[in-house]
Amino acid sequence: MKFEYNGNLLEEDRINLVSKEIIDKYPDITIDKAKEAAMLEGKISNKKTTQDELNRLYNIMLVNCENYGLVSKIYKDYLSVINTNYHTENNIYVEITKDIMSYLCGFSDFPILSDYL
Would you say the pTM of this structure is higher than 0.90? Predict the structure, then answer.
């Protein structure tokens, strides 16, 4: 997925750019859900970090949590990012993985990231 620099954009332009990046990667997502996920994301003013990527993927899963198939697809990409960058300090994103899997198995609600802070 593309993560273009967007720190110089007005909020509406940033949301539109991020929404387009999301839909380009996941065309099954509606524009409204892509915009909702984009609104949860901060500006990218420097080089994209692993945390930026994991946060975007989490936000996409969160706003689409009623669609298990779509969340499952995004979760695979989420795990791939974690497995590729496991040495990172993003422990909160690692901790939540088992609870996302529990959600996908139907054992729990979708986990809320702020509960892990």
Answer: yes
Question: How is residue 48 written in tokens?
Answer: 């994209």
Residue 94 pLDDT > 70: yes
4-25 confidence digits (pLDDT tens): 888 888 999 999 999 999 999 9
Contact, 74 vs 57, CB < 8 A? yes
Residue 104 burial (C-beta neighbours within 10 Å; 0-12, 13-18, 19+): middle
Helix (H, G, I), strand (E, B) or coil at 87: coil
CB 43 within 8 A of CB 6: yes
Whether the CB-CB separation of 35 and 19 falls below 8 Å is answered with yes
CA atoms within 13 A on the CB side of 29: 29
DSSP at 26:
-
Which residue type sits at 105?
A: C
Residues 6+ apart with CB under 8 A from 47: none
The answer to whether the CB of 62 falls within 8 A of the CB of 29 is no
pLDDT above 70: percentage of residues in the chain: 96
